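Lab notebook, design round three. We kept the backbone fixed and only want residue identities now. Task for the bench partner: fill in a sequence for the structure below.
Input structure tokens:
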């Protein structure tokens, strides 16, 4: 039987310290019929030259160079060049388990014609944890999966790097280049909307580095919060009327993110934006009252976020050590 070709897309920007580990985790895969698309997004630390060197070693590696336009633009360029039957994504400071491709393809054979999702290792200060939790069944309605993931019970973010995607479906979509953050979740949701069900197994196959200096996960800024809010609004917009439970949990996240954006605006001395996002937070909370799948406890807690963004942060940090 002919083996399918998997296209793995890796945007690269100033990760020269880590890119070799990422590439070597691909060349070490037990499944060998893959192509690696490295997109150098205007790196200034020599990452682009490293990518060219990798391509010279292995004909399955292709490199593209562009001026710095952001991760979405880099991924979109690679999507236009991908030749595989399936698509996967890897961040250039992360790595893959050697059986990543082989295991996801085995899951796909069991699942049938639908996207499949695995779990991940979180790498921090030399320690690895595998936080993704199972569901009662591996085959699950899309609305149920997204609700459980977004509500936080799976310990799994909705992001592109843990999926094996049918290329025919994924290539109909593109990453939103107007977003600096949150573009990943929006892209994945757009792609998944073509399927009533997905296949999820929390086996950890992706190694996600969270303690790299410059990692956007740890950044806190008005710019990041505002972009995340726009991503959430767009994601809820495409789910509206199609995924009832997912739409509700996205409304919950809009309350939280609008409150976070207000706090970030205040911290940066942006008084007008603070008032603007505090008002928007309250408007989202009023919509939340019509969401029966969000608990009454959450609705009461989030009313505090809407009415007193700054005080609610202090209270939550004092009680739980997090917001």
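Proposed sequence:
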């Amino acid at each position: 039987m002919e083996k399918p070709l998997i296209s793995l897309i890796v945007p690269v920007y100033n990760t020269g310290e880590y890119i070799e580990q990422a590439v070597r985790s691909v060349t070490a895969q037990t499944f060998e019929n893959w192509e690696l698309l490295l997109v150098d997004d205007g790196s200034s630390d020599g990452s682009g030259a490293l990518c060219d060197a990798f391509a010279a070693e292995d004909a399955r590696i292709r490199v593209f160079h562009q001026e710095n336009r952001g991760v979405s633009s880099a991924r979109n360029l690679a999507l236009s060049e991908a030749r595989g039957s399936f698509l996967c994504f890897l961040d250039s400071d992360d790595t893959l388990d050697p059986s990543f491709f082989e295991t996801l393809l085995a899951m796909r054979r069991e699942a049938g014609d639908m996207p499949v999702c695995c779990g991940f290792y979180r790498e921090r200060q030399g320690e690895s944890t595998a936080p993704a939790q199972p569901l009662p069944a591996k085959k699950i309605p899309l609305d149920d999966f997204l609700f459980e993931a977004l509500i936080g019970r799976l310990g799994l973010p909705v992001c592109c790097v843990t999926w094996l995607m049918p290329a025919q479906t994924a290539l109909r979509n593109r990453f939103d280049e107007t977003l600096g953050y949150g573009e990943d979740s929006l892209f994945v949701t757009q792609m998944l909307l073509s399927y009533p069900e997905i296949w999820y197994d929390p086996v950890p196959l992706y190694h996600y580095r969270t303690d790299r200096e410059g990692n956007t996960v740890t950044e806190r800024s008005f710019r990041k919060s505002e972009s995340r809010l726009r991503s959430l609004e767009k994601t809820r917009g495409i789910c509206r009327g199609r995924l009832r439970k997912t739409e509700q949990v996205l409304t919950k996240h809009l309350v939280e993110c609008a409150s976070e954006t207000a706090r970030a605006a205040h911290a940066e001395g942006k008084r007008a934006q603070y008032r603007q996002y505090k008002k928007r937070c309250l408007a989202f909370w009023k919509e939340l009252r019509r969401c029966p799948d969000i608990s009454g406890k959450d609705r009461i807690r989030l009313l505090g976020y809407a009415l007193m963004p700054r005080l609610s942060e202090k209270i939550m940090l004092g009680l739980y050590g997090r917001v």
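Keep this in mind before ordering anything: The longest strand covers residues 197-209.
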